[in-house]
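To illustrate the input format used throughout this study, we show a single complete record. The first block contains the structure-token representation of the backbone; no residue identities are included at this stage. The design step must infer an amino acid for every position from geometry alone.
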């Protein structure tokens, strides 16, 4: 395959950025998208140019690091992570636009790499449980109803990639935050911090500059792990419940 790549290049957070055009040839349909970028970088290095900076880690679809907007879609045309997107999803001769996440809470560090530490701070504000020290309890020591366990596991699948923020026209982090809150709040282990968790995490989310949610649904459509849109409604109910309890 021969492709034309239009890639966002930006030297650092303070420098202006612009799209740069590159031609790559000999791309196999079996390559992942990141392997295709590796090929581009090898060619740039051989030509004495600076390679394109992009984020990646596991390349197995579980770490959420590979954050790219491809032809206007978070992670590209398939509902998967960028590292699991393969070049068979494109045609020979295609022009592909590659950009970083676009959100004020995710400032660009360099080229396609953005600072997603705002997610870390949201987690730090309440994404934990109180646990006694000592030997690990037996797995069956705390019974959990299966519907609650299923609900928790569904939301625990969130990998914090930020696709929901990148896809949202408001740059909202409500789907991410709701996934982290819901999977803990529904379990008995998360009960001690149930109220403070939702209040603190929502407050931190707002402080970090994420936009408000207008339920357009783009976040759930872009989520590679399929976190459902009703997750946001469940979090809102938790927030209202906690707010009323605090007011008492």
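Output of the design step:
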């Amino acid at each position: 395959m021969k492709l034309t790549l239009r890639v966002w290049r930006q030297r650092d957070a303070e420098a202006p950025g612009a799209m740069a055009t590159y031609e790559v040839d000999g791309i196999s349909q079996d390559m992942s998208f990141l392997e295709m970028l590796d090929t581009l970088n090898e060619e740039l290095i051989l030509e004495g140019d600076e390679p394109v900076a992009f984020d990646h880690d596991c390349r197995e679809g579980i770490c959420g690091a590979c954050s790219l907007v491809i032809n206007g879609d978070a992670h590209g045309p398939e509902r998967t992570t960028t590292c699991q997107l393969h070049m068979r999803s494109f045609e020979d001769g295609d022009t592909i636009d590659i950009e970083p996440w676009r959100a004020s809470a995710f400032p660009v560090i360099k080229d396609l790499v953005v600072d997603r530490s705002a997610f870390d701070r949201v987690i730090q504000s309440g994404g934990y449980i109180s646990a006694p020290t000592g030997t690990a309890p037996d797995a069956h020591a705390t019974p959990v109803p299966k519907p609650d366990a299923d609900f928790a596991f569904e939301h625990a699948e969130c990998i914090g990639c930020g696709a929901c923020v990148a896809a949202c026209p408001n740059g909202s982090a409500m789907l991410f935050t709701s996934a982290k809150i819901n999977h803990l709040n529904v379990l008995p282990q998360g009960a001690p911090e149930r109220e403070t968790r939702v209040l603190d995490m929502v407050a931190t989310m707002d402080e970090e500059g994420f936009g408000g949610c207008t339920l357009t649904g783009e976040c759930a459509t872009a989520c590679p792990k399929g976190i459902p849109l009703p997750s946001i409604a469940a979090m809102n109910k938790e927030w209202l419940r906690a707010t009323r309890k605090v007011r008492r």
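Structural context for interpreting the output: The chain has a mean pLDDT of 94. The first strand starts at residue 3 and ends at 9.
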